[in-house]
Amino acid sequence: MVNAMAIDCMHSIPQPPKESPLVFDASVLSHQLNLPSQFIWPDHEKASVHVPELQVPFIDLGGFLSGDPLAAMEASSLVGEACRKHGFFLVVNHGIDRNLITDAHALMDDFFELPLSQKQRAQRKTGEHCGYASSFTGRFSSKLPWKETLSFQYSAEKKHLPNLVKDYLCSKLGKEFEQFGKVYETYCEAMSNLSLGIMELLGMSLGVGKSYFREFFEENNSIMRLNYYPPCQKPDLALGTGPHCDPTSLTILHQDQVGGLQVYVDDQWHSVTPNFNSFVVNIGDTFMALSNGRYKSCLHRAVVNSKTTRKSLAFFLCPTSDKLVTPPCELVDNLSSRLYPDFTWSMLLEFTQKHYRADIRTLDEFTKWLQRKDDKII
After folding, report:
1. What is the spatial distance between Cα 316 and Cα 104, in angstroms, rounded to a whole number?
2. How crowded is residue 79: how many other Cβ atoms within 10 Å of its Cβ?
3. Taking each helix axis from N to C terminus, what angle separates 178-206 and 98-112, rounded to the nearest 10 degrees?
4. Is the distance from CB of 271 to CB of 54 less than 8 angstroms?
5. In this structure, are residues 217 and 199 in contact, taking their beta carbons and an 8 Å threshold?
6. For the chain, what is the total number of helices (H) and then of strands (E)?
7. Lowest model confidence (mean pLDDT) among 4-8, 188-192, 291-295
C-alpha cells in the first residue's frame, strides 16, 4: 500500500507545462526570421517564384453578354479548349463595376489589420466553412498555409433573406461593419451573375445547351472568401496556400497586383500574372463530376513574399446543398461511362471539412469514402 507521505510526494512532482496552441498572428509572425516548423513545407513541395507564365487567352465576354450569338460561340469554344487542357482561363469585359472591385479590395484591410482578438470575434469553428481563420492552426498540425481568411455564405435561393452577407458580418463583427457587409453583398451578387453567364458558355461548349448548367446553379448557395497573405521573411520555406484543387464547382478569383498564384500544367508550375481588368476562372471538382470528367479541376497554389501583403477575392460557386450532382445524359455513353457516383454538395463539403484535406486526389478519395459508407449501409 502506498502511504500518505508517498502520495504527497507524488503530488508535489512538477508537471511539464502544456504547450500553448499555435496561433497565426500576422502582426508578429510577418517579422519573424525563424518560422515555426508547422509552416515549413517539405523540400519537394517548396515554392519557386521563378516559374514560366501560364499562357492562356483572355476570353472577351463583351459580345456574349450583349447577346451576340457569334461572340458567344467563339467564347464558348475558347472556354472549352481551356477546360479540356487544364481548367483555367481569364475573362475580360466581364461587366463587373471597376469601383466595386476596388472597394472590395480596399475594405479587406479594415478587417485584416484589426488586432487578432477582434478578428477572432468571427472565429471559424472546427468543421465549419464560414468565419475567420488564422491559417489552419485549428485543423492541421503541419504544412500550414501562410495566410488569413474570412469566409461567408452567399445564397441566390429565393427563400433566403436578401441581406444574408451583411447580416452575418454585422452579427459577428458589429454594426460598424454594415458598409463592409453591403459592399460584399453587392460583390457576391455580381459574382453569382457572372458565374451563371460562364455556366451558359460551359453548357454550350459541352453540347448540352446554354440553359442546362445555368438552371442547375440559378439558386446557388456559394462561398465568398477574402484571402490575406502577409509578408513572410522566409518565403522559400512557406506557402500561402498549398497545392490543391478546389472541391467547389467554379472559382472566380480577382488577385491584386502583387502576384503569387501558380498553376500546375504540363508537369510544371506556372504563374498567373495579375491583371486588374480580368478575373481568373477555374473549374472545381464538383463541376468536373458534373461534366463526367471531360473538364478538369486543376492543381494550384499561392506563394508568398518577404515584403508585401498579397490579397485576393475568391468566389466559389456551389449548388444548393441538397442538389444532386449527376452529369447530363448527353455526357454519358458507351465511350464515356460514369466516372463518379451521384452525390450532393453537402456531402462533399462535409468530406473536405471533417475528413480530408483538399488536394489533387480529393474527388477520387471522396468516391472511395462514399463507397465505404454505402458498403456499411448494405
Report:
1. 16
2. 26
3. 130
4. yes
5. yes
6. 12, 14
7. 4-8
Contact 169, 181 (CB under 8 A): yes
Single-letter residue type at 128: E
3-state secondary structure 263-324: EEECCEEEECCCCCCCEEEEECHHHHHHCCCCCCCCCEEECCCCCCCEEEEEEEECCCCCCE
What's the rounded Cα separation, in Å, for the pair 20 and 318?
Answer: 37
CB within 8 A of 214, min separation 6: which ones? 196, 197, 199, 200, 203
Residue 261 has which C-alpha cell? 498564384
Q: How many CA atoms lie within 13 A of 368 on its CB side?
A: 6
Question: Greatest CA separation found in the chain?
Answer: 93
Return the active site residues: 310
As a whole number of angstroms, the distance between CA 368 and CA 373 comes to 9
Gap between the terminal Cα atoms of the chain: 54
pLDDT for 16 beyond 70: no
Residues in the chain: 378
**Counting beta carbons within 10 angstroms of the beta carbon of residue 229, is it exposed (0 to 12), middle (13 to 18) or buried (19 or more)?**
buried
Q: Is the predicted pLDDT of residue 147 greater than 50, yes or no?
A: yes
Contact between 319 and 217 under an 8 Å Cβ cutoff? The reply is: yes
Alpha helices in 43-126 (DSSP H): 62-65, 69-85, 98-112, 116-119
